[in-house]
């Protein structure tokens, strides 16, 4: 089967035809038993050869430059081995089609280098077995959230206006991009499961099966978000109590039917007792009871339940200083360690709040050693510029994955999986902002190897997306992407305090937008100071949820890292930070600097005009104007707000409104 071509006008992203030249201009032999994934590999090589003059054959014997050696199709083994003698051929060996496919994409990354010199046998295998992308796609257009909740790249590539799109070519092209960066699972609908979407599980499962067929061709398993109330809303039962025999039977039967049509179905994703979604609390049951019921339904078929830990009170009274949203996930889940089934995975947001530009690493990740755990990142840029701002998140994610909650083991080793909330839609560039493609690619590669240097991942992305890029383009792309997360941090909410966004859609500044709301997201600024006291001594006690190594660091403003200091402490404006400036001067300085950095990035991008395809260049250039406008708005609102509250002038006399 030939590889899918994205429909007309859709960007090839990191798989442009030219990336296949080194492979396609050589002679390849595929040895071993074929199966669907080996067919996919064959199709990829054959297409590349048709384009670039090489050849591909089955079997052995003939002289060749590349041998793809596969023992069989079977199994979940994703590893492959690469080896080469000085005079070739290059050989990729895998026990099955999954490994061979990853090996093929590895060769693409190596480019000409794959066919030069000697390679000692190198075994490649993913560090994390679960590398998943969650789509927050609705089937119906939701009156507030639209087709894709927190989607900034157009509509869903799966559904439109309540119907399946039936665009297998686009889905297959998407699956290919995901496989090429190492992703092996996709959940195809929003974790907020509304009425129409609930039915994907039952009478509309055929639509999911059609998507699964496309994903399967690239080694990706399909998952579904389900509502905990399904036995009531779909099955007509009086209860969804996870310990009720009829309920359990209903789930068992519904799950069996899913596997009838999707034999390799990955499993369920569940958001329960969170932001209005139903859950086990209604029946006085624990989240382990809830998760285990679904785990039991999935177990006979080899499926997994991803149970989200994003559980908190979203109807808080802002006057009540004893409730702390940051504490909630730990308070709910840490006591349940050891109670979850072997095929239940607790899916934990990387920070305790909600995908802010800066948060401490969630203490939940270190608190359940006997529970399988997936760390959830937000590839879609809800709070990081909504794909109108350049904000490459590789640096932030890497810091999270390397963080040692117990002082020893990095998060990337504690976790069994990494889950990203997708940033893809029906936009011609897939991701709205063309440079946001780098976030999706980086997510996949960090899931494969959480210890990878994110800047090297960016090198890969640049080389694949722009084959043969001149040095000026490579360094220009690094210049605009490498520091973009920190620039974004500088011109938005300061020192880890978070939020300060426009309520509802979350784009642009509104310092007090959430200050008197029920969502539990406060900064407590007054004329004397700002920040949230989360210490054990005088605050909410959140700091004590960490192991002692970190609890001690965060407990004291003197040792707490500056970038998190207002997350953990309420401080006077004159408080001297570790970096040497006061809180208020830091706010002014970073906001002026952040805007200057965006201006510089915009100018760098302008200088790349002759090196980037014109429509891509123009789109990014246009978006930079909006980013700059928005960054100035952030700067002026945040600086003016704190000047008015504190009355402290800028030490450098710059204009504050
Ligand atoms: O970040 C918040 C978003 C919600 C989202 C929720 C979640 C899907 O604002 O839109 O709902 O998190 O992660 O469940």
UniProtKB/TrEMBL annotation:
Residues 123-430 form the Glycosyl hydrolase family 67 catalytic domain. Residues 431-654 form the Glycosyl hydrolase family 67 C-terminal domain. It comes from the Bacteria. The keyword Disulfide bond does not apply. This is Alpha-glucuronidase. Keywords: Hydrolase. SUPFAM superfamilies: (Trans)glycosidases, beta-N-acetylhexosaminidase-like domain. The keyword Hydrolase applies. It holds the Pfam family Glyco_hydro_67C. Gene3D superfamilies: Alpha-glucuronidase, C-terminal domain, Glycosidases.
């Amino acid at each position: 089967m030939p590889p899918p071509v994205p429909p007309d006008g859709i960007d090839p992203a990191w798989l442009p035809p030219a990336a296949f030249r080194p492979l396609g201009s050589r002679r390849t032999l595929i040895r071993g038993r074929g199966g669907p994934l080996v067919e996919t590999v064959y199709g990829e090589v054959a297409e590349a050869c048709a384009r670039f003059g090489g050849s591909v054959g089955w079997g052995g014997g003939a002289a060749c430059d590349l041998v793809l050696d596969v023992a069989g199709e079977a199994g979940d083994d994703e590893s492959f081995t690469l080896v080469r003698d000085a005079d070739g051929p290059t050989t990729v060996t895998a026990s099955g089609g999954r490994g061979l496919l990853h090996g093929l994409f590895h060769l693409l990354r190596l480019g000409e280098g794959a066919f030069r010199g000697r390679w000692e046998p190198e075994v490649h295998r993913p560090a994390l077995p679960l590398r998943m992308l969650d789509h927050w796609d609705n089937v119906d257009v939701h009156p507030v959230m639209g087709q894709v909740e927190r989607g900034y790249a157009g509509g869903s590539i799966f559904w439109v206006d309540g119907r399946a799109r039936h665009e297998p070519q686009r889905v297959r092209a998407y699956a290919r991009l995901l496989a090429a960066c190492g992703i092996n699972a996709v959940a195809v609908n929003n974790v907020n499961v509304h009425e129409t979407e609930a039915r994907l599980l039952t009478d509309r499962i055929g639509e999911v099966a059609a998507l699964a067929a496309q994903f399967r061709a690239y080694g990706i398993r399909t998952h579904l978000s389900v509502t905990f109330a399904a036995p009531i809303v779909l099955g007509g039962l009086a209860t969804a109590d996870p310990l009720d025999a009829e309920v359990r039977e209903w789930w068992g039967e519904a799950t069996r039917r899913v596997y009838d049509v999707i034999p390799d179905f990955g499993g369920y994703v569940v958001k329960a007792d969170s932001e209005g979604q139903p859950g086990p609390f209604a029946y006085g049951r624990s989240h382990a009871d809830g998760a285990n019921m679904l785990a039991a339904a999935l177990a006979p078929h080899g499926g997994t339940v991803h149970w989200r830990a994003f559980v908190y009170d979203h109807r808080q009274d802002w006057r009540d200083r004893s409730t702390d949203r940051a504490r909630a996930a730990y308070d709910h889940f840490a006591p349940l360690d050891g109670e979850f089934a072997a095929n239940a995975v607790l899916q934990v947001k990387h920070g305790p709040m909600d995908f802010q530009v800066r948060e401490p690493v969630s203490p939940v990740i270190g608190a359940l050693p006997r529970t399988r755990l997936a760390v959830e990142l937000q590839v879609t840029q809800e709070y990081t510029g909504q794909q109108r701002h350049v904000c490459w998140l590789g640096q932030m994610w890497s810091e999270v994955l390397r963080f040692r909650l117990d002082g020893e083991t990095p998060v990337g080793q504690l976790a069994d999986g990494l889950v990203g909330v997708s940033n893809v839609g029906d936009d011609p560039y897939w991701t709205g902002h063309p440079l946001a493609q780098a976030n999706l690619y980086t997510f996949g590669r960090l899931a494969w190897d959480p210890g990878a240097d994110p800047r090297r991942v960016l090198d890969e992305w640049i080389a694949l997306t722009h084959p043969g890029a001149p040095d000026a383009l490579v360094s220009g792309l690094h210049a605009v992407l490498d520091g973009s997360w920190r620039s974004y941090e500088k011109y938005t909410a300061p020192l880890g305090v978070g939020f300060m966004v426009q309520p509802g859609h979350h784009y642009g500044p509104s310092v007090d937008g959430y200050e008197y709301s029920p969502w539990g997201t406060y900064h407590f600024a007054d004329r004397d100071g700002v920040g949230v006291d989360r210490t054990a001594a005088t605050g909410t006690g959140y700091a004590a949820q960490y192991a002692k190594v970190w609890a001690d660091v965060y407990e004291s403003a003197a040792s707490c890292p500056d970038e998190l200091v207002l997350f953990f402490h309420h401080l006077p404006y004159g408080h001297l930070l570790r970096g040497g400036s006061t809180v208020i001067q830091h706010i002014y300085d970073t906001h002026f600097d952040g805007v200057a950095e965006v201006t510089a990035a915009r100018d760098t991008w302008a200088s790349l005009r002759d090196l980037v395809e014109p429509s891509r260049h123009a789109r990014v250039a246009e978006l930079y104007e909006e980013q700059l406008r928005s960054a100035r708005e952030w700067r002026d609102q945040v600086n003016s707000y704190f000047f008015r509250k504190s009355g402290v002038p800028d030490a450098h006399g710059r204009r504050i409104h």
